[in-house]
Amino acid sequence: MYSRNHIFAYGTDGDLFIPEVNNDICVGCGACEYACPTIPYKAIYVDGNVVHLDAEKPEEEELKAPSTEEDFPF
């Protein structure tokens, strides 16, 4: 699953978190604003687009299969 948003630590103690939007894969639908749990004001504000934008396909990491050379562990 790819996320358009993620949070990162902010401040000197690292106890505050703020959202960061990846505009390369954001289409402007506003789903992240709706899902944002902060109250009474949302931490993400989306100024909606009349027509949704085209998103770039995110880079995919190649998954490696686990080694099956060892016996079953139990």
From TrEMBL:
InterPro entries: 4Fe4S_Fe-S-bd (IPR017896), 4Fe4S_Fe_S_CS (IPR017900). Residues 17-49 form the 4Fe-4S ferredoxin-type domain. This is 4Fe-4S ferredoxin-type domain-containing protein. It comes from marine sediment metagenome. The lineage of its organism: unclassified sequences, metagenomes, ecological metagenomes.
